[in-house]
Amino acid sequence: MNGFMGELMASLAQAMHAFQSGALSHREFLARIDSALASDRSNLARLTEMLGEERTRIGLPPDVYSELQRRVRHVAPSMQPAGDEETRMRTGPSERPGSVAPPADGMRTDGGADLIKGVGDTLNGRFVLEECIGFGGMGTVYKALDLRKQEASDRMPYIAIKVLNVQFRGHPKSLIALQREARKAQTLAHPNIVTVYDFDRDGSMVYLTMEYLSGKPLSRVLRTPGFAGLPYHETLRIIDGVGRALSYAHERGFVHCDLKPANVFLTDRGEVKVIDFGIARVFRKSEEDAEATVFDAGSLGGMTPAYASPEVIERLEPDPRDDIYALGCITYELLTGRHPFDRLPAAQARGNGMKPSRPKKLGYRQWRALKAALAFERAARVPSVARFVQQMRPAPPFMVYAGRAAVALAVAALGVGGVRYYQDYRDARIESSGGSSGSSGAATTDGASAAPATPPVEPPLSVASIAPLLAGVPCSALAPSVRGQELRVQGYVGKSFGIDRLRDMLDDAPGVSALSLDVRQVGEHACPVIETFAPYWKGSRGTGISLRVRAPNAELSEGQPLIVDIKSPGYDSHVYVDYYVLDGNVSHLLPSVRARANQAPPHHEAVIGGLGNWVISKPFGAEMIVLLATPVPLFDGLRPDYEPGQAYLKAAQKRLGEIAAKYGPGRIAVDFVQITTRERGR
């Protein structure tokens, strides 16, 4: 090899290595190649052979190698030796190592040779490939001039074309794959998803047409030398755009399966677009979609190990939480400039026991959400993309820096609806600010920016500071406890408010660094029961009263006996056990005609229903059992064994108020449990 040829190959090798390591984008890599080729237009046969050797040595992707071959062929065709077929990029079996195999469908052009389409070529006499702008798992993407649009004087005559790579095109059902991709992508009409137009073929070349985007892929941002993370508000803007795209697709039954920075595009107009749903697989398959059992583009194995969840790598059925894992990796990179697991595949990172460190820019609430997104197990991940993005949003300034007394007074003044109003107002503030709550200063009357105020030092976390927040939660019985800066909450909350909403509210409470919830949701039918006894239930913590159902997980089937273990509080009391049925009635288990004695000494333990006196029957669902202890009889004499629940609760509430006024509310103890009943055999 002469010296100049050696320098050329060294330059090409350096470019290839830089591209493989991520230091060069697709465009930068090809520009470097073009520059190197322009410096020497001789001995192309030897150059082609050496490219094949280099490609084999460093594992250059087939798409990239094909484009390199195409560029070499276009450099100086007039310099090719007569009869030298090596530089014509033949795809026959007689070619040297490094050449491209013929397509499986056998379709050829140019007298039997399957030409490799590239920059300068025209597809179907209509689309002129002007620039290679990217490589994907399925093919090479070009900027193309649509001659038909140009003839019509269309102001936007350019489109993007994805030409299937040779390896994919050789798949016997590649056309089916592309047709399915086009059909799926056409149904995903969303501002944050690239618009797909159609698919077609030119000889053996199969391609997809889509909107042309001017901008750059997110991968180029992450590969910027010295990149150490974006500002939080910019990170949030990007993941919000990606999140909207994924949520839209997930609602329609599609998982991306190959979400990565290269498939997130930032346009020059500030838009965030998710591209290449090419290997997305239907996770909610319609019975009418017979094709779903015939061919699956995901079977081609397209995925990126650094961003693929363990389940994707293991080829399990796709799930929206696979995309959440990938989005978590991207979010972490955007915040820190580093991959959370040093770009190792998830399975390997899990085997190595790797745990990402908390980015400095994140508060507890956001870090908890990001950690959950990065979980190696699906069940531990955030359940939805929308939930992840919502949890990543910061609390508004008025909530973060407001004093506890102000928060308590505000919630107390708003009453039962206060928490709902506060949450809606908080979400509105976040949405109106584009997903970010912070600014560098406060706006003044003349539009200038005032210096930010120093946030006041918050007092230590306490039960007293949290109690007013919990008091505003409708249909709830919630008991807080505090250990350092960790808040623990036990109890019940109505489904209309929900555990997730409760968690968000408490995550944002001043002073909370860690949160533990042991809370169950109850249906709306149970709200009158909860609201009647909740004040006494909260005050009963520490009295020793307890109610437990013998059935595992408090789940019982039709015909199964209801057996409960009870323990009275630490004083002489009258004990009542009531079963609130789904039909709106209440069944009095103790006292009753069968069991009249209900007086108990301190800390007395007893079994109710041990003789099989009560068995489960219709209706079925979630029902409440309440244990009540009072210092004096609740009523004079027995009540009917079975009576309307609303009337009983009204009478009980009135009588409890009288007892509390005379003996003190601390002498009334309550515990309750929710059971689940079902039809026999289900």
Query: Which CATH architecture of the largest domain?
Result: Orthogonal Bundle
Rg:
34 Å
Instruction: List how many beta strands DSSP finds.
Output: 26
- What quaternary form is this? single chain
Instruction: Please report the distance between the alpha carbons of the first and last residues.
Output: 78 Å
Question: Outline, from the CA principal axes?
Answer: elongated
How many distinct domains? 5
Topology diagram in text:
Elements: H1 3-21, H2 26-38, H3 44-58, H4 62-75, E1 122-123, E2 127-135, E3 139-146, H5 147-151, E4 158-164, H6 166-169, H7 174-187, E5 196-202, E6 205-211, E7 215-217, H8 218-222, H9 232-251, E8 254-255, E9 264-267, E10 272-274, E11 281-282, H10 310-313, H11 320-336, H12 346-351, H13 364-373, H14 385-392, H15 397-401, H16 404-414, H17 418-432, E12 442-443, E13 449-450, H18 463-471, E14 476-483, E15 486-494, H19 499-507, E16 514-522, H20 527-539, E17 546-549, E18 555-557, E19 564-567, E20 573-580, E21 585-590, E22 599-600, E23 605-608, E24 622-630, E25 642-644, H21 645-663, E26 669-678
Parallel strand pairs: 15-16, 18-26
Antiparallel strand pairs: 1-2, 2-3, 3-4, 4-6, 5-6, 7-9, 8-11, 9-10, 12-13, 14-15, 17-19, 19-23, 20-21, 20-22, 20-24, 21-25, 24-26
Helix pairs in contact: 1-2, 1-3, 2-4, 3-4, 9-11, 9-14, 16-17, 16-18, 20-21
